[in-house]
Design goal:
- The complex is a heterodimer of chains A (588) and B (168).
- By secondary structure, chain A is α/β, with parallel strands linked by helices.
- Chain A is built from 24 helices and 20 strands.
- In chain A, strands 3-2-4-5-7-6 form a 6-stranded parallel β-sheet, with helices on both faces. In chain A, strands 11-10-9-12-13-14 form a 6-stranded parallel β-sheet, sandwiched between helices.
- In chain A, α7 links the parallel β6 and β7.
- In chain A, α1 packs across α2, α3 runs parallel beside α5 and α11 runs parallel beside α14.
- The termini of chain A are far apart.
- In chain B, strands 5, 6, 7, 8 and 9 form a 5-stranded antiparallel β-sheet that branches. A 4-stranded antiparallel β-sheet of chain B has the order 2-3-1-4.
- Chain B has 168 residues and is of the alpha+beta class.
- The longest helix of chain B is centred in the middle third of the chain and has 13 residues.
- Classes of the chains: A alpha/beta (588), B alpha+beta (168).
- Chains A and B meet through β6 of A and α1 and α2 of B.
């Protein structure tokens, strides 16, 4: 063997460096000690020590979603790998590029039930886009380069690379990234021009059009968002975003109808139901969007643009599918639109806008204005008003607070909003905020949280302390697992089975014990000054905002109902809660 | 029409690497698709390519999903729905053990002859027949052998290829 050999661990570090990695989120253990040793001897990659491996994956997701670059995780074998599984599934569901490096027992011990051994590739096969077990140090560099290619091209997703300890120690030659080309994986990027022309024609002739865009716009990069904004403004048509797609179109714009879906706005859901042409870009007709499938948007012709062919016709049959990258296709659409010198006759879509304005007047995100209690919606609105000029990065946990944040916080740019959409992982927000803060040290990063969710990864407070990350945790504390309580109230006869959170910690003291600042507000006035104080302090903060414990998220499309059958809140002309059917009760 | 459940034979070329079959099977079980038959073997050793043939049933929408989901797996090169894409040939090989005596034994041999099945093992009380053909031909043969003392059967599952000069 020639002299340019390196150990597997050194090869790994070099491969990561060549892939432009500057940060790894990880936790050491027996099966990754050689890699940690190699990390110790270098200065190009910064390692962030989390407190539990699950936190590492969500932190990598936050890093990835706020930068557009893949997030990198390093964990040990056995429990290190199994703790990462929730985060990997989360990244798969939300199409987030993550590279997760797992240690493994030495190759000769695989299959012997060795200490901290688990079948990592077997366990993570269904929750990754792809995974590898590297059995030879000579393959390691190629696999890492290929892994980055797979994670970031096509529909992004998590990739696990399982590296036995002997492979980390053995010597081999390095392979540079330019020498690696995946044998077969070439996702289609450019859309079929004939179909794009046909789509432009359909769009130009629509009378009741609506754009429905999702996380695919965010994943296609900031250029896709600006092209989308340009195209939507050229047409003058209304647009709605999915939970994952918020920030893909400026939320303060008049053409924006707000989020759609189970807790989407009245106008967005009705526009989807009554439209004649639906332009879906980078969204996947998820059950939270469609409601009852046979009643979904019955009068429309549907155009579906997606990079993943398996998203087409999965839940809803569409009329015109176009496979490719959203930015490329939008670019072609704009070009073809302009070349045809198309102009939308405002008179043609004026009745549609008039109808939308009637729906909009219901003010479906409205809530009772009171000075006695802090309404959670008011807390989100106040937070938005006081932080919007600082271009904040917002993460959330999962539940009612997440929906209020999605409804009321207005995102003008992509990559500012990070929430667990597909998997709905409680405990996502704090580590994700950590990752976003690492990537943007000078920005304001806020985790809008619930008191139940925050407890799921509260250990990461210690990481915030270690790296002096001034993440703000804004807890809408209603003492309940609010969304569970809401469903029990509306669908299970107010039998609040196990949804009250007993024995919560004193969040102010908890913050202080982790070297953070703890703040509490019990009245609207206190809340306003709490927000000012929280923003002003250059340290991590836990803000315990005591909100109305009985508030529900409206509108709500109950499970099993059509997407235009919404329950509204009292401020929007409350509607009767329909009796839940057995079929509806069986749905999630 | 939309919901008619039909049988489809799907072929996929895949990288012959560790875990690729588990990926395909996991996809079917994880998403609740049926597998009626599955065969897999290397077909191009120079390039390390295997061919997987799957017989499945589903509505047109499900079959379209199965194809798209298979195609999405990173080590899958090409997926072809032979049932949709034109005329194709399906063959399966089966070994059937028939244990009987007297008139039944003679009858078993006679039927084997009609089906062009070969006796590949014989004792004074039993035969093992080898038969090749479509899955339905093998079903029919097995049905006739059942009352004649069929005690054991091993089937390979369906291998399939398109007719005409074009490759998959």
């Amino acid at each position: 063997m020639s002299n340019n050999t390196m150990t597997g661990a050194e090869i790994l570090i070099k491969a990561l460096t060549d892939q432009g990695v500057d940060t790894i989120f990880g936790y050491p253990g027996g099966a990754v000690l050689p890699i940690y040793d190699a990390l110790f001897k270098q200065n190009s990659i910064r390692h962030i020590l989390v407190r539990q491996e699950g936190g590492a994956v969500h932190a990598a997701e936050g890093y990835a979603r706020s930068t557009g670059k893949p997030g990198v995780v390093l964990v040990t074998s056995g429990p290190g790998a199994t703790n990462a599984v929730t985060g990997l599934t989360d990244a798969l569901m939300d199409s987030i590029p993550v590279i997760c490096l797992t240690g493994q027992v030495p190759t000769h011990m695989i299959g012997t039930d060795a200490f901290q051994e688990c079948d990592t590739t077997g366990i993570t096969r269904p929750c990754t886009k792809h995974n590898y077990l590297v059995k030879d140090a000579g393959d390691l560099a190629r696999v890492v380069h290929e892994g980055f290619y797979v994670a970031t091209n096509g529909r992004p997703g998590p990739v696990v690379i399982d590296i036995p300890k002997d492979v980390q120690i053995n010597r081999a030659e390095y392979t540079a990234p330019e020498k690696v080309r995946h044998k077969t994986y070439r996702p289609r990027v450019k859309g079929d021009l004939e179909k794009i022309r046909e789509a432009v024609e359909m769009i130009a002739q629509a009378e009741r059009p609506v754009f429905y865009t999702g996380g695919g716009i965010i994943n296609a990069g900031p250029k896709a968002s600006s092209l989308l904004t340009q195209f939507v403004r050229m047409t003058g048509y209304p647009i709605t975003n999915t939970l994952m797609g918020l920030g893909g179109y400026p939320a303060s714009d008049r053409q924006f109808l707000g989020m759609l879906g189970m807790h989407g706005s009245y106008e967005a859901n009705w526009a989807m139901h009554d439209c004649d042409v639906m332009i879906c870009i980078g969204a996947r007709f998820d059950d939270r969007v469609t409601g009852r499938l046979d009643a979904f948007s019955p009068k429309s012709k549907k155009i579906h643009i997606d990079i993943d062919p398996s998203s087409i016709n999965k839940n809803i049959r569409v009329d015109l599918p176009i496979i490719g990258d959203a930015a490329h296709i939008l670019e072609d659409m704009i070009r073809i639109w302009k070349a045809g010198a198309r102009q939308v006759d405002p008179a043609r879509i004026e009745p549609w806008w008039r109808q939308i304005d009637i729906w909009r007047a219901r003010n479906s995100f409205g809530y009772e204005k009171t000075d006695k209690l802090i309404k959670p919606q008011r807390a989100v609105e106040a937070l938005y008003e006081k932080t919007k000029d600082r271009d904040p990065y917002i993460t959330t946990e999962v539940g009612q607070h997440q929906m209020w944040a999605a409804q009321l916080f207005k995102f003008e740019n992509p990559n500012r909003w990070m929430t667990s959409g597909g998997l709905g992982t409680m405990g996502y927000g704090l580590p994700a905020a950590m990752g976003a803060q690492i990537a943007h040290p000078d920005k304001l990063v806020i985790d809008i949280a619930g008191e139940a969710s925050i407890m799921m990864n509260i250990q990461e407070m210690s990481t915030l302390a270690q790296y002096k990350l001034p993440v703000k945790i804004f807890i809408l504390n209603n003492q309940w697992m609010g969304m569970v309580r809401q469903w029990q109230e509306l669908m299970h006869g107010k039998r609040y089975s196990e949804s009250y959170v007993e024995s919560l910690p004193d969040f102010v003291k908890l913050a202080e014990s982790f070297g953070a600042v703890g703040l509490r507000a019990e009245t609207p006035d206190e809340m306003d000054s709490l927000i000012d104080e929280m923003i002003a302090v250059d340290r991590p903060v836990i803000a315990d905002v005591r909100v109305d414990p009985t508030e529900n998220v409206y509108p709500m499309v109950p499970s099993g109902a059509a997407h235009n059958e919404m329950i509204l809140g009292s401020e929007s002309g409350a509607s009767e809660v329909p009796q839940a059917t057995d079929e509806g009760l069986a749905l999630v | 029409m939309q919901d008619t459940i039909a049988r489809h034979t799907i072929s996929a070329l895949v990288d012959n690497e560790a875990g690729v079959l588990a990926r395909v099977i996991g996809l079917f079980s994880g998403r609740g698709y049926n597998i009626d038959s599955l065969t897999v073997s290397e077909v191009d050793s120079a390039n390390g390519v295997s061919r997987i043939n799957i017989v499945t049933t589903g509505t047109p929408m499900t079959i379209e999903q199965i194809k798209a989901q298979l195609d999405r797996l990173v080590p899958v090169h090409r997926v072809s729905d032979l049932t949709v894409e034109g005329p194709h040939i399906e063959r399966e090989l089966a070994l059937l053990k028939v244990r009987s005596s007297g008139e039944k034994r003679v009858e078993a041999l006679r039927i084997a002859d009609i089906f062009k099945a070969r006796a590949v093992d014989a004792t004074d009380r039993s035969f093992v027949f080898e038969i090749t053909g479509s899955a339905s031909k093998i079903d029919a043969f097995a049905e006739l052998m059942r009352p004649l003392g069929l005690v054991d059967m091993s089937r390979t599952g369906v291998a399939a290829i398109s007719r005409g000069p074009d490759e998959i």
